[in-house]
């Protein structure tokens, strides 16, 4: 697998650049997941008074269409039990308080977010800041693209390859970051091994 990944990177004409960009995407992905988890862990619990103040007492959840009043009643009953039928964090009603303020049952809101979605199901407004692509590091050039091609097209194709490989590694229980570190070191060792050969040719 590592030889295949290095071969694909080298075809672009810039192994280090591609690896660094992939690491940047990995870091953005991790930051994105942390933000999403932090938001889901801190979703507010709305009360009957909160719903009344928002004029939503008789409204249903836009996703499951269960009335909010029924969801609150279910939460109250479940919390009175020693062993609730559903996890406590999924009970009740919540809202995206820092952005659009749309209201949902907590179960559906958490399910939506755990699928990696970052926009409100109702208005599609992002409820977390999306990570930006990292800039190219100083002194490094992107891989050469075919004449007339979109300058970003080659990297997008390479990134798709690497991101797919990263998911496969996760599925196999392998830490992708550690794997790419080893692959990068292996590629650099090969380059270092080639240097004496080239120096001998021109000596």
From TrEMBL:
Look up the domain of life of the source: Eukaryota
Domain RING-type positions: 61-124
Pfam families on file: zf-C3HC4
Record keywords: Metal-binding, Zinc, Zinc-finger
Give the PROSITE patterns listed for this entry.
Answer: ZF_RING_2
Which Gene Ontology molecular function entries are recorded, alphabetically?
zinc ion binding
UniProt key word Metal-binding: yes
Question: Does Metal-binding count among this protein's keywords?
Answer: yes
Q: Which region ranges are annotated with the description Disordered? A: 132-153, 184-203
N-terminal signal peptide: none
Xref: InterPro entries: Znf_C3HC4_RING-type, Znf_RING, Znf_RING/FYVE/PHD
State the protein's name: RING-type domain-containing protein
